[in-house]
Amino acid sequence: MYKRLIPRLDIKGPNLVKGIHLEGLRVLGKPEQFAKYYYEQGADELMFIDCVASLYGRNSLMDIIQKTAKEIFIPLTVGGGIRTLDDIKNILRAGADKVSLNTAAIRDPQLIREASNRFGSSTIVVTIEAIGHADGLYYAYIDNGREETGKEVCAWAKECEQLGAGELLITSVDKEGTGAGANIELIDQLTAGLSIPVIAHGGIGKKEQVADVFSTTSVSAVALASILHYDAVNKMTYEQNDYSLEGNTSFLKQGAPSGRFTPCSIDDIKAHLVQQHIACRVE
Model pTM? Predict the structure, then answer.
């Protein structure tokens, strides 16, 4: 089966944002523009996450999803602030193919079972935001990595599978936004004994690290943010949008940061995967 590349778009209000360890969010632009750009490059799926939705008790992506679904014809996963079956129904009706659950699933695990029974397990992705502790274990967090739950990651992952989740997204909060490479130890621990697909997220700073994840672990997909966004920021032609009231816009003014990242496009990454004999969809 083909390995998938999934651009992850973290959204705050009307804007695409990016931070480090899920914090320090900086404005990158309008998510609709990035989504279209990645679709045209050959993204296998797209993931939209309202990164402040759980804090405010609502998901504000309906308008963005409706617009995106009319122009983009690859699977769309939407997460953030989804708390009820009605929330899931509304997101799917707006044009999403899958929903991502984290905070609500941990607070009420039966929501996973109810949602998978009603909408099908293939539509239910459970996100696990993992942080390593001094005892050598990883624990799941909610509210965009802010609140500890006390749930050990591997045990929680197996529970999610038993409850009917169709897919898991594992985010290494320790690695997220750093470009230091994926947390292979965490991925290996989580995937051991699981039969459902796992998406790895967090830490990718260069195309070689994507190949490393696929060649050394059993994940089905990698969710990418910084490595793609920083490339797009420097290449895209921006519409004339007023960002003056949108907070930290340093990326828009200065371009992508240097350091551990070697920004590249989806085409660049897939070409490298093909060279490494890793099966991926190439148009």
Answer: 0.91
